[in-house]
Design goal:
The protein is an alpha+beta fold and 125 residues long. The chain contains 4 helices and 3 strands.
Length: 125
């Protein structure tokens, strides 16, 4: 495969907001499958553009050196269900909180997890 072929693959870009020691805010973008392929920018768009340039360099050097270029990880399929074991006292607190808020335990937990991850699209199935 050529460099352009790899760049067309669906590598996931991890984008994280960052603050330096001086308090300046920016963004860091990284390609997990390509170790050390990381860049930054003042805006999310700039960080993504910069990490795409970094990908070009990373892949070009790997191919020139005869190294394998990792493929993007498959996103997989998830059922949306998992089992979590918690202490009975936490279970009781969660049930009471869900009742107080007028939602199901499932909806309370899904919404709480989504908020923790900074998402707003949690829906109970």
């Amino acid at each position: 495969m050529e460099t352009e072929d790899y760049l067309a693959l669906p590598y996931a870009i991890e984008l994280v907001q960052d603050t330096d020691d001086a308090g300046h805010q920016g963004w860091v973008a990284e390609i997990e499958e390509l170790p050390g392929c990381i860049s930054q920018g003042v805006t999310p768009e700039e960080a993504i553009a910069n990490v795409r340039d970094a990908m070009l360099g990373w892949i070009s050097v790997a191919l020139e050196d005869g190294r394998d270029v990792p493929q993007p990880r498959a996103l997989g399929t998830y059922s949306g269900k998992f089992i979590v074991r918690v202490p009975s006292s936490l279970h009781a607190d969660l049930v009471k909180t869900a009742a107080r808020e007028g939602v199901s335990l499932n909806q309370l937990v899904a919404t709480t997890l989504a908020r923790y991850l900074g998402r707003t699209d949690a829906k109970a199935s």
